[in-house]
Recover the amino acids of this structure.
């Protein structure tokens, strides 16, 4: 996209946003664990939440607050998910929103709250509250880096992105941060992503734009129907750029493209930094009757522990990929399938192609591995991202709370 | 069941069956890898096969041969799945049946063939054929132990069971063997199970009886819709006991009970010996509107890598269990859920119950761990079995072919 320029930073790159990240003592490590993102002016907002029936208290509170399509504060804690905590958890989430609202000087229903960490424990509210107040005092236009660190759990690095897009000569900016990192299967740890933009985008435009970008990005790293209790993706649009994104306008197209770019970057970072990951795996499924079926096959492969362990072992055991396609629920025809791994053709018309295992295994040692599957059934395609499954995945998750 | 007596051995425990297991050089280890099970007299047969769209050649051939409800030979090789091998794989599977038929002296359409091992490689037919001929020469009524070893892949031990049931004073016997062992998720390695009985059971009785037992046993160790390319469960009934299992008779009830016992034993052994397993995990879901929904919730928990790694780490991180119930697709109500782990109540009416983590973690170190989840929504229940996910799971599957 020629008129899209990368910027440093994340949610503070767009005009009129400040952020902060502080250590409130919620994480046993003593690391940063409370983040605040604030728009200096009124903002519209949209969000996508977990579809898990067991959804966390902050998700319920944020849904309520977003009913009018407006919000200008995001308040987050890491280290405790405030999920499966009954009515006390609901009280705590509401209190968290209230304290954040006071710290930012906005009405409480303009606050989105999010929590991530261990499930089933009550929030240490004294620490959360003092953390939010401290974050309120530290808000700055350079605070996004700290905020991005404060939302991390088992992530090994913060995930930030920002772009500027020229719309008929006038710039708008979109920034974002996210945390994973248990993206190794769809039932993994919480995904939180927070985006900001200084474009003016009305709620009826913002929500569909966010959903469309999500379908092709976050929902392609297996964070979809099978998501955690706390998954939250939210965007604030404060209009500080003076550029309005009217439906069907050139600004609309540019905004959607910029949003897709930001979401794609973050989604791939989630996969690349999956728990214990040693490599990013990109799976492109082509030749499907529909994009939905292409993605379904891709996610089935991406979620297979057998495929993921083989990728970790640099083992071109491609039968496991075919097997996962076979049980995806899509009516694949084995006799039509073609498969390429790291550029090496392995299967054509459903029959094995002779290949050099040592060379292919060597190619699999790259930090990014590409799987291409052509179903031979249609014209549609979808790309999904995942990572391999290593010893560290087991270590991280066997030792999480105790 | 008072009139059910355990016997030693497996498929040769019923009268009129012989078996053998030989080393044919298919497994790189040089271990036993070709098995033959033969009824000395005509037999009826029933089977349940994989529902994977990418199903292996031997599955297609066995389905054809079972159309008339009759078979008296089971021929198996381990070390190579003969899956995704195109038309040459089909030729090989047919040839395997033909050679087994000649070795056993029966028509080819009375042979069930099965293969397990790596996908996407052609069978070494010379070795398979000489192995089948050698097995034919070695058939004996004491050969079931060798046969049970010959069907193993990553299994750490053979899995055998046999029982005698008295039906109005006359004994019938049922025996069985199976192999896993990647039962850690529903998309795992091949499950093969072969049962024999000396009861006389017509095909129209045998197939429903097998399906009913499967639903409550093998389909509760997550080997169901999401199964491998080769999954096969077959039973031969040769009538050598002289006892006929007529529909609705006392013999019918006794036979079904015996079959359930045999299948339950084998299913639990599969879970207990899952790849890298350090413990058997039994998950009972109660209070569901239907048994199907109870099982769906149980399997969702049983398949969660986060739950499985926590079980490996003896970590009572029960939030992961709730989370997996939440995304099971069943409309659970978090406020009604009760959870017990190793007999320790952790959750009541959707809220955490204080518990001693150290004691609970200690209890989780047992070789068998029990999870009880009451959904509070109805009267139905289901029990599923699985195992934990350890470092060895990753090791085994990262190093399988290379």
């Amino acid at each position: 996209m020629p008129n899209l320029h990368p910027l440093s930073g994340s949610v503070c790159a767009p005009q009129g946003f400040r952020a902060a990240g502080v250590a409130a003592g919620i994480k046993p490590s003593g690391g940063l664990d409370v983040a605040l993102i604030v728009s200096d002016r009124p903002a519209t907002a949209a969000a996508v939440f977990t579809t898990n029936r067991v959804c966390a208290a902050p998700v319920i509170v944020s849904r309520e607050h977003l009913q009018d399509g407006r919000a200008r504060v995001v308040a987050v804690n890491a280290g405790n998910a405030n999920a499966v905590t009954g009515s006390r958890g609901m009280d705590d989430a509401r209190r968290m929103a209230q304290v954040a609202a006071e710290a930012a000087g906005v009405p409480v229903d303009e606050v989105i709250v999010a929590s991530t960490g261990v499930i089933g424990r009550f929030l240490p509210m004294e620490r959360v509250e003092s953390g939010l107040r401290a974050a309120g005092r530290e808000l700055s236009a350079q605070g996004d880096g700290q905020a991005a660190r404060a939302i991390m759990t088992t992530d090994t690095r913060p995930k930030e992105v920002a772009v500027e897009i020229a719309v008929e000569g006038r710039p708008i900016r979109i920034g974002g941060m996210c945390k994973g990192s248990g993206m190794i299967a769809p039932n993994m740890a919480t995904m939180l992503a927070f985006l900001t933009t200084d474009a003016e985008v009305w709620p009826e435009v913002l929500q569909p734009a966010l959903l469309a970008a999500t379908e092709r990005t976050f929902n392609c790293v297996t964070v979809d129907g099978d998501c955690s209790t706390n998954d939250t993706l939210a965007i604030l649009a404060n209009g500080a750029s003076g550029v309005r994104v009217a439906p069907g306008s050139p600004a609309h197209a540019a905004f959607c493209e910029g949003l897709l770019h930001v979401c794609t970057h973050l989604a791939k970072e989630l996969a690349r930094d999956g728990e214990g990951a040693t490599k990013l795996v990109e799976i492109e499924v082509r030749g499907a009757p529909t994009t939905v079926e292409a993605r379904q096959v891709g996610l089935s492969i991406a979620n297979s522990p057998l495929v993921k362990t083989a990728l970790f072992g640099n083992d071109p055991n491609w039968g496991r990929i075919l097997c996962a396609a076979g049980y995806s629920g899509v009516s694949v025809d084995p006799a039509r399938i073609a498969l390429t791994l790291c550029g090496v053709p392995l299967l054509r018309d459903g029959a094995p192609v002779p290949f050099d295992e040592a060379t292919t295994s060597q190619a699999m040692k790259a930090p990014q591995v590409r799987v291409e599957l052509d179903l031979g059934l249609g014209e549609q395609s979808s790309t999904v991202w995942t990572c391999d499954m290593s010893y560290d995945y087991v270590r991280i998750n066997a030792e999480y709370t105790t």
User: Anything to note?
Assistant: Confidence is low (pLDDT under 50) at residues 183-188 of chain A.
